[in-house]
# Entry
Amino acid sequence: MSITSTALVLRGPREIVLEERPCDDPGPGEVIVAPQVVGICGSDLHLYREGRIGDSILERPLVLGHEAAARVAAVGAGVTELKEGDRVIVEPGLACDRCAWCRSGRYNLCPHVRFMGVPPTDGLMASRVRVPARWVHHLPDELSDAEGAMIEPLAVGLQAAHEAGVAPGQTVVVLGAGPIGLMILQAARIRGAGPLIAIDLADRPLEMARRLGADFTVNPREASPVDLVQEITGGTGADIVIEAVGAAATIRQAFDLVRRGGVITLVGIASEPTIPLSTNRIVRGGLQVRSSFRYAHQHPIALRLAAARRVDLLAPITHRFAAAQAPEGFQFVDQHKDTVIKGILTFADGREGG
Ligand SMILES: [Zn+2]
Ligand SMILES: [Zn+2]
# Structure
């Protein structure tokens, strides 16, 4: 006998519905969580608009969502570290724990990972979800559920700053001031980098970037980012450029912004299957082109930084929708790209804070 869960299901591009689905009892080592606040991520929007994100294609109806603060609703056999009622967040990349990458600590690269909310694995936009206890973290009392939902994007930002090797005093350019770009910016600031420069095509995210620590911002529709970075760096270019858009134009621009010998770190997932680049430019410029994919071991750090108020997780949240209005919420976020920075869905009795 199982209870049902109200889930937000993507059936095809722009076809999203609330649906009652069965939710099984937790098995050994598993818990049932009741999500309270779930963030709407750029990847959710890719799936919503295009029915795909990178190589992951929507082939059957999918429950979206991978950024959740939740309550533990039931606990399976053998779970000792969690109990019913605990406030938690879910780390959505369910890695296998057995492969070479998992065993070496780089579980973000696990080839067997089931990433919640990305095809074919159902996600967290539901009233009850069964998850392995292994990937559930306690949410400290001082953090609201809305902040809890932002821990996952912060983990992405922390990983990106780590992979880029951001160090004190370095000039860092972040291409894209959406939720991920804003988290990268805060992570770079914590690491002591500066000046920090944010680039985006919309003004509202740029205002937010300034509020969260960007020393300079530039909208390419109004001024040349290359000229600005040249001016700031005395003509050498940025030490590090982190690309958080995933578009051919911004990936190419990264090469115009970085200094000789500098580091480019790609974070955005591009819609195009291939993007031509000049390899000679990489070799002759002594460039290091790196990437940052999701995160490994960043959630506990993100939780500590948030609890210590070293980052602002609430500022980027511009729109909140009740779960019952989730389909309209997705439509709104999709149609208001310039004004929505981060939208969140609130389930049941979520303690929002902020
Ligand atoms: Zn995300
Ligand atoms: Zn693995």
The longest helix spans residues 151-164. Residues 202 and 220 are 9 Å apart (CA to CA). The mean pLDDT is 95. The chain has two domains: 3-150+313-346, 157-291.
